Structure of Electron transfer flavoprotein subunit alpha/FixB family protein:
Amino acid sequence: MSINDYKGVLVFVEQRFNEIQNVSLELLGKGRKIADELGVDVTAVVPGSDISRHAQLLIEYGADKVMLYDNKALELYTTEPYTQVVVKAITEEKPEVVLFGATSIGRDLAPRVSARLQTGLTADCTSLDISEDRLLMMTRPAFGGNIMATIVSPEHRPQMSTVRPGVMTKMEREPGRKGEVVNAKVALEKNNQFVEVVSFEKEVGTKMDIQEATVLVSGGRGIGSADGFEILDGLAKELNGLVSASRAAVDIGWMPHDRQVGQTGKTVRPNLYIACGISGAIQHVAGMEESDLIIAINKDKDAPIFEIADLGIVGEVQKVLPLVIEEIKKINA
Ligand code: FAD
């Protein structure tokens, strides 16, 4: 079989507690664009239990075909059964491109699938494009984020990549869009790699996800202390936003890791990102440069963050922010 026999884009759709994850809709959006460029279809592969209700949603977000692998054993993610299902789907469908979310599930699953299919995998891609000769150009940070590397897989199929949540954009939902739904057969082959999930403890908490916020007030080492973040909290409250942080602020212990923006944190694209006392290192910028409006406050007029900011304020955060908060309070009153 030649690599030209592989056609189409396949997206692994991730559900957790039977809820489709946003990253899968984002990948369908990107998959749709790639498929349109290549003149092929997008297939969504969904392993889970009692999942038929998701099919139409996935079609409306860009899938031409939805393959439902419905089995009680697939209700919760475990490596081996999911690998079997995805390998089977790829072997039958022969797509040229396969996309996974770079989530804890995708990062566990995709390498195993690629090893079984003896093809390559590019992890944590930040952009995907099609070359003139129909190759998938998979771009990701390399060498500690100092350069961007574009990787191709000219000799093996499928071309597989994982993409972090928040990097791609969903297509606008098209209600009533038509597509094919297949109830695919699953015969799981029990082997010594099977594990049994005894129980699932869901962490309870009121934590909000910075990837969902429309406004982020982000603090770096320039904030000076954990207490210094209170002032950022004050601004975030006035703007209905959340507080996020640079890695330096997280490493010192001023903020928890789930608030970290950047290459080893989360990728965010809020409507407004206010960078306070953040220098603008490439690894930080990689996680926030797609924000609609970026405001930077930094006491160093040469700080690199000003190169990507739409609006820059040169000054001490501790002096500037109280004035900003006061003005916003007047507007909100
Ligand atoms: P600094 O670089 O120390 O900058 C502090 C800034 O605050 C300076 O510009 C200073 O002028 C300003 N300042 C100081 N006092 C004040 C004040 N009173 N008022 C106003 N401004 C003030 N970083 C991330 O953020 N996210 C990542 O995910 C990430 N991943 C990484 C992955 C790798 C492999 C590597 C090698 C690095 C990574 N980093 C990441 C670290 C990154 O390189 C920087 O070290 C980090 O972003 C610096 O954080 P910072 O801007 O808060 O601190």
The pocket of flavin-adenine dinucleotide is lined by residues 144-145, 220-222, 246-249, 260-265, 277-279, 281, 283-284, 287, 297-300, 303, 316-318 (CB under 6 Å). The mean pLDDT is 94. DSSP finds nine helices and 17 strands in the chain.
